[in-house]
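DM between two lab members

TW: hey, do you still have the LysR family transcriptional regulator entry open?
JB: yeah, one sec
JB: this one, 308 aa:
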Amino acid sequence: MTEWDIKKLQILRTLRDRGTVTATAEALLMTPSAVSQQLTNLAKQLGVRLLEAQGRRVRLTDAAHLVLRHAEVVFAQLERADAELDGYLRGEAGQVRVAAFPTSVPALLVPAVRQLRTAHPGLDVRVREAEAAEAYELLTAGEVDLALSLAAHAPSARDPKYSRVPLLADPLDVALPADHPLADAPGLRLADLAAEPWIFGGSGPWSEITTAACEAAGFVPEQAHSASGWTAILAMVEAGMGIALVPRMASADRRSGTGVVMRVLSADQPRRHVVAAVRSGAEEGPAVARVLAALRQAAAGRETVQQN
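TW: and the structure you got?
JB:
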């Protein structure tokens, strides 16, 4: 029977994900020569070529991809074993590390943690604020147990390494200066704002979400100013420097002055989709499952408020 070495398979998977031996070595705290040696030994154990030269780099062979396709099932099962063992050993106690994008922390994660403190006081939730794409990098690296992020920046739902849980469709409202001619216009649509100067980030998820929403309405937004923080964006809107799409999670608890009007785009309401993700199999662990349940409850509560 073929000898399967889990540690070497993990090195091969990391090489596939990171792309180079050097990056793989850095991720696994190994030397490049040690990575190469382990993969050479794995190829001998399996009796197939796993790597082939591609210029100054290496690429995985078809055999390597076949091996990893089956190995993903093993990795997921090991995650389930870890989760069950953790539940057996810890019972109601345990620690769950969560990476969450900024606006989701007060809107979803804090209410979830409050509920968990009452229902499961022995459960320790450790929060790490991270941008949407970074949350998945932390999850892949094993630095967190759960990533709270945006569907637009999540791995494919068909990626066997992750389990995704949809949480919330967060509406995007448009922020206008209070004295804007369209501030109280009935039936406001995104297309009515095509000629306006827009404020959004120069790159990253919010730039892409704003651009995609406007393009779906039939125009490309003119970016007048670039900012990533909602305090800065709303301050510029209030000053009449432009307009912006703002997620309702970010604006619901805004306590600024009266210089900004938030308009609901009911005719063509754009949304961003919030999801939670864990490594495949880990969702069956009792601690992670409790956190996911609390996040679902917080999301359901927010959707109820939005509908009223």
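TW: got it. The chain has ten helices and eleven strands. The radius of gyration is 23 Å.
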